[in-house]
Amino acid sequence: MGSHAMFSQMVTLRRSALVVLALVASASSAFAQFEIVGSWAARNTEDISRDSYPVDYVGLPLNDEGRTRALAYNESQLAMIERQCEGWPQFYFVQGPFGLRIWSEDDPIKGSAISYTIGGWEDRAPMVIWMDGRPEPSTYAEHTRGGFTTGKWEGNTLVARTTHMKAGFLRKNGAPSSDQATMTSRFFRHGDIMTVLVVIEDPIYLAEPHIITKSFQLSAAPISPVGPPCVSTFEGRPLDESVPHFVPEKNPFVDELTKKFGLPRDVVLGRRETMYPEYRKTIKDTFVTQPACTRNCGPVPNR
Amino acid sequence: MRRRSLIALFAVAIALPVAVHAQGRGGAAAPPPTARASAPIDLTGYWVAVVNEDWRYRMVTPAKGDYGGVPITKEALQIVNAWDPAADEKAGEECKSYGAAAVMRLPARVHITWQDDTTLKVDVDAGTQTRLFRFAPAAAPTVPPTWQGDSTAQWERGGGRGGPPAGGSLTVLTKNMRAGYLRKNGVPYSANATVTEYFDLSPSPGGQMLVVTTVVDDPRYLLQPLIVSSHFKKEADGSKWDPTPCSARW
Fold first, then answer.
1. Is residue A83, in this structure, part of any structural domain at all?
2. Which helix (H) or strand (E) holds A198?
3. What mean pLDDT do residues B193-216 have?
4. What does the alpha-carbon distance between residue B164 and residue A44 come to, in Å, rounded to a whole number?
5. How many domains does chain A have?
6. Which of B17, B50, B11 has its CA nearest to residue B233?
């Protein structure tokens, strides 16, 4: 056999081997592929970010520092250019009432996703989940409102980790998050339902990780991202004025939820022990159910 | 040589997925593995609900008439406004808010074990309820309906875009329930409601988490399916297990 013929055979064999590898790969990847691209509607049948009450930290595991910082917040800070966008961190994609529009940028050769993008909504910046194995930025890299997110597949679950976010809010009423906060998001899809589990860790303001789960439903109608993300603008407050705030111990709104719903102060102030079943024993004999609801009791039925 | 090599390569291509997904082919037909043996995830153990969402609807009894977030019908609204816990007590129906449509949303601890190779048992300490998730072919419905209904279960096996098969989740469909309450204050679901649940596991800082996504379909009392997701942390043991009876008021 001549050298040319041998070379030809080798090339053919290599090509065949590539075909074989492709067959094997497709056999395993087709086993249960999970597509997250599309429009996902929020049904909002469970908690969404509560910003109606100035002091409502219910369900947040704040530590003492976080609680003090939260109680010092005054909503007049929103008139300050440098603080206007604090209320729309990346966490807001599961806290707000909006649906998700997700798309991917795919490698034209490999067909794999380079990134997924969860479109922004009003003031929240888009989240780009980098799937191409790039590393997180260095510790000292710039922090942005949207942060930096990398992702990977673990079985049929997409896992995304967000770092490098600016300090902002855990809840729009001023419950704080620091620039050291990180967010790990897991996307579970079951048919037309997608549940997102978000775990926020913040060594500065949280006593334990803050956990959020929210479910979305696949929508036939496209959900268009609405932007641009929050842009600061002058709202009449001179730059040299002081920061509007309350003295934490004298926040005038601290009893508002207690009066309205009978919630104990420890609950309102976001103490972590209030999130576990055994806490009910401590309030069973003192909790008083409120009078019957007469307005804003729920969505008005149309049939 | 070339021909033999190609044949060998294609033989590998064809045989490998089969070998991975259906081992034992070629010999005597082995019985299919039981649900327990083939479980892609391990749900067993003690789990505690982390109640940081819908706190005032779950941890305490909400005010009568407050059904915030639940897309009820006008007929359901009449029931909401007529809620009378004393009447429920008198009728021996203190467990109406502990049925399958609501039980995973309770402030509770959950203990999951295998009752046998095809039945996953879920005990809930609040209200001392027991659910049975049956992987075997569905039996005839329980007569009469019960608070926890009849649940059939199925594993979903993981894959992932471009990744090897790994992990998975549990899907449970529950029917044949007694009519009950989605919330303690009388927000109703009917006897015709069905509950679809998805159980997913996740590692978490310092342990493991269970996420249960619950979809309640009830055309009579709900304008659209009620979708809620509840999360639990795994506990090392049952030292905080605290069975309590059903209560119509607390």
1. yes
2. strand A193-201
3. 96
4. 34
5. 1
6. B50
Q: Which parts of chain A sit beneath pLDDT 70?
A: 1-33, 48-50
By CB atoms closer than 10 A (0-12, 13-18, 19+), residue A193 is buried
- Whether residue A282 lies inside any domain: the answer is no
Which candidate from B52, B69, B107 shows the least CB-CB separation from A211?
Answer: B52
Cβ neighbours for B243, distance < 8 A, ≥ 6 positions apart:
B125, B128
B57, B200, B223, B242: best mutation site toward chain A, by most A Cβ within 10 Å?
A: B200
Using a CB-CB cut-off of 8 Å, the residues of chain A touching B224 are: 43
Domain that holds residue A211: 38-55+74-218
Out of B20, B171, B205, closest to residue A199 by CB: B205
Q: Give, in degrees to the nearest 5, the angle at Cα B86 between B67 and B176.
A: 65
**Which whole-number Å values give the CA distances from B240 to B49, B131, B203, in the listed order?**
12, 20, 22
Question: Per the domain annotation, does A190 fall within a domain?
Answer: yes
Strands A182-190 and A193-201: antiparallel
CB B65 to CB A297 under 8 A?
Answer: yes
Question: What are the tens digits of pLDDT across the range B39-75?
Answer: 999 999 999 999 999 999 999 999 999 999 999 999 9
Task: Kindly indicate the confidence band of residue B33, based on its pLDDT and cuts at 50, 70 and 90.
Answer: very high
Q: Compute the count of residue pairs across chains A and B with CB atoms less than 8 Å apart.
A: 248
Q: Are A230 and A145 in contact (CB under 8 A)?
A: yes
Alpha-carbon A278 to chain mean position: 28
Q: Cα(B250)–Cα(B248) distance, rounded to whole angstroms? A: 6
**What is the model's pLDDT at position A48?**
65
Q: B238 CA to chain A: closest CA distance, Å?
A: 14
Give every CB contact of residue B151 below 8 A, 6+ residues apart in sequence. B100, B131, B132, B133, B134, B172, B173, B174
- Could you tell me the end-to-end alpha-carbon distance of chain A, in angstroms, rounded to an integer? 84
Q: How far is B226 from chain A (nearest CA, A)?
A: 6
Domain assignment of residue A186, yes or no: yes
Angle (CA) A51-A196-A168 rounded to 5° is 40
Burial class (CB in 10 A: 0-12, 13-18, 19+), B46: buried
Tell me whether residues B67 and A298 touch, CB distance under 8 A. Answer: yes
Sort residue B168 into left (φ over 0), alpha (ψ -120 to 50) or beta: left
ipTM field: 0.87
Closest A-chain CA to B5: A13
CATH number reported for the structural domain that contains residue A81 in this entry: 2.40.128
Q: Fill in the amino acid letter for A298.
A: G
Is residue B235 left, alpha or beta, with left meaning phi > 0 and alpha meaning psi from -120 to 50?
A: beta
If pLDDT is split at 50, 70 and 90, which confidence band does B157 have?
Answer: confident
| Residue B1 reports pLDDT greater than 80 | no
